[in-house]
Amino acid sequence: MDKSPMEAEATIYLLCGKDNKVYLLKLQKGNTSWDISSFNLGFEPRFIFSARKSSKLCSANPNLPMSIFEYNGSAVVAMVGKNCFAIASDRRLGVQLQTIATDFQRISKIHDRVFIGLSGLATDVQTLYQRLVFRHKLYQLREERDMKPETFASLVSAILYEKRFGPYLCQPVIAGLGEDDKPFICTMDSIGAKELAKDFVVSGTASESLYGACEAMYKPDMEAEELFETISQALLSSVDRDCLSGWGGHVYVVTPTEIKERILKGRMD
Amino acid sequence: MECVLGLVGKGFAILLHKNNEDKIMLLDSHKLVAASGEPGDLSNLGVQFTEYVQKNVSLYKFRNGIPLTTAAAANFTRGELATALRKLSFASVRPSVKNPYSLNILMAGYDNESGASLYYIDYIATLHKVDKGAFGYGSYFSLSTMDRHYRSDMSVEEAIELVDKCILEIRSRLVVAPPNFVIKIVDKDGARDYAWRQSVQFDLCCVVTFAFVGRLFLTSLFSSKINIEDQANDVFLQNLTQNNDNISKQIYPKHKSNHMKNTKRSK
């Protein structure tokens, strides 16, 4: 803890294979030349998977400085259907590369028609959730009705921007049914920049895979059952490619008449 | 190095702390809390913070006439840690210095309504209710052992067997393994010392706490100042110290690597 978790280790690794050997090339901060190590494989290497970002893998150091957003690991996605929406998250709670629990709740209900899924640092997920529930309950007492999802999204954005220079390190995904049962989804970054979308929103460590999977699988105007299938497949296939999230999934499918909560069992790792 | 372990069994929870000082504190009659943290940072801080929580738990009981539930106490502790995490310390010379506690906490308790429970609280105030948990370097070994052997309805004897397996694992695999362990248990009859696992008697303190929830008992390891009550320890102890001796006497051949060749190539 003597080093700030925000400092990335400035080393670039390249992994390549040829002629019965696997080569690891390393360019360290401050050096102008590559260090090459090679390992004699004994056979022609066929597939090589390498880390996408230099700060994530390629090191056995248990105190590898990851981004603080990747400290606990998370994946949240929300999709819009026909008069319904679905919001899903993974269930892993970890501390860097160690898994602590496999039943962590990332999606919370604000009221029957608005759900918020929070990805990022777990402590801020819990703190932010408590603050938002408090604000919503106060709103309910004063206005004697539930908050609309658009209003709630603005509230979250304002609360996050309040902490502009010491932010809550989480990215919320908000999903709700607005007037006339029109579904509403939005996501924002950790300082409250809203991104409204008409089809799906993603956040978390697996967000890049999620973008790809959702884009491929999404169709407009899906019914509740089909939406559940789509979002589940997108979530499970994306978290399979991310070591920091996974251990199943938690899916809420919300229609004007009912809320269905389902637990998914995927690759439990 | 400190390790804290805990697990939940059938109506009880165990917390195990390796230490020569008793770092597992009674919050009230049916709650136990074990705190561990960065070495050098812990001894005063941990005691201060857990005492603070203990006094507030008692205050609630005096004011309201009923004791706090384990969940409530855990959430209170989490709230204190979360507040301190981003609080600016105005008392210091530089007003922008933050003052977070670097304490990892395992809290075990028994409630009549909800039975035994174990809460995992990180040093950055991540709260989660778990069946088995561990902190410190010992966690890398004991979590796997517990994953393999733990069941949700273990009896006290089975749980102690599992605890002993974890201790054995820590002692044989961890270079900086703490020599002494204290086991404390909490069940419907309250929180109490259960047993010791001592291999060395001296006044240094190292804490290993692991807890699992069964009938809620907390194990903690104590210093040599306290007499060992459980005589069964002696045989167990001999075996363990025996194992330790054997391992330290083994001489591992120096590893010569012919495969990795480091070459520097300038651009």
From TrEMBL, chain A:
<dbReference type="InterPro" id="IPR029055">
    <property type="entry name" value="Ntn_hydrolases_N"/>
</dbReference>
<dbReference type="Pfam" id="PF00227">
    <property type="entry name" value="Proteasome"/>
</dbReference>
<dbReference type="InterPro" id="IPR016050">
    <property type="entry name" value="Proteasome_bsu_CS"/>
</dbReference>
<keyword id="KW-0539">Nucleus</keyword>
<protein>
    <recommendedName>
        <fullName>Proteasome subunit beta</fullName>
    </recommendedName>
</protein>
<keyword id="KW-0647">Proteasome</keyword>
<keyword id="KW-0963">Cytoplasm</keyword>
<dbReference type="InterPro" id="IPR001353">
    <property type="entry name" value="Proteasome_sua/b"/>
</dbReference>
<comment type="similarity">
    <text>Belongs to the peptidase T1B family.</text>
</comment>
<comment type="function">
    <text>Component of the proteasome, a multicatalytic proteinase complex which is characterized by its ability to cleave peptides with Arg, Phe, Tyr, Leu, and Glu adjacent to the leaving group at neutral or slightly basic pH. The proteasome has an ATP-dependent proteolytic activity.</text>
</comment>
<comment type="subunit">
    <text>Component of the 20S core complex of the 26S proteasome. The 26S proteasome is composed of a core protease (CP), known as the 20S proteasome, capped at one or both ends by the 19S regulatory particle (RP/PA700). The 20S proteasome core is composed of 28 subunits that are arranged in four stacked rings, resulting in a barrel-shaped structure. The two end rings are each formed by seven alpha subunits, and the two central rings are each formed by seven beta subunits. The catalytic chamber with the active sites is on the inside of the barrel.</text>
</comment>
<comment type="subunit">
    <text>Component of the proteasome complex.</text>
</comment>
<dbReference type="InterPro" id="IPR023333">
    <property type="entry name" value="Proteasome_suB-type"/>
</dbReference>
<dbReference type="InterPro" id="IPR033811">
    <property type="entry name" value="Proteasome_beta_3"/>
</dbReference>
From TrEMBL, chain B:
<dbReference type="InterPro" id="IPR029055">
    <property type="entry name" value="Ntn_hydrolases_N"/>
</dbReference>
<comment type="subunit">
    <text>Component of the proteasome complex.</text>
</comment>
<dbReference type="InterPro" id="IPR050115">
    <property type="entry name" value="Proteasome_alpha"/>
</dbReference>
<protein>
    <recommendedName>
        <fullName>Proteasome subunit beta</fullName>
    </recommendedName>
</protein>
<keyword id="KW-0539">Nucleus</keyword>
<dbReference type="InterPro" id="IPR001353">
    <property type="entry name" value="Proteasome_sua/b"/>
</dbReference>
<comment type="function">
    <text>Component of the proteasome, a multicatalytic proteinase complex which is characterized by its ability to cleave peptides with Arg, Phe, Tyr, Leu, and Glu adjacent to the leaving group at neutral or slightly basic pH. The proteasome has an ATP-dependent proteolytic activity.</text>
</comment>
<keyword id="KW-0647">Proteasome</keyword>
<comment type="similarity">
    <text>Belongs to the peptidase T1B family.</text>
</comment>
<dbReference type="Pfam" id="PF00227">
    <property type="entry name" value="Proteasome"/>
</dbReference>
<dbReference type="InterPro" id="IPR035206">
    <property type="entry name" value="Proteasome_beta2"/>
</dbReference>
<keyword id="KW-0963">Cytoplasm</keyword>
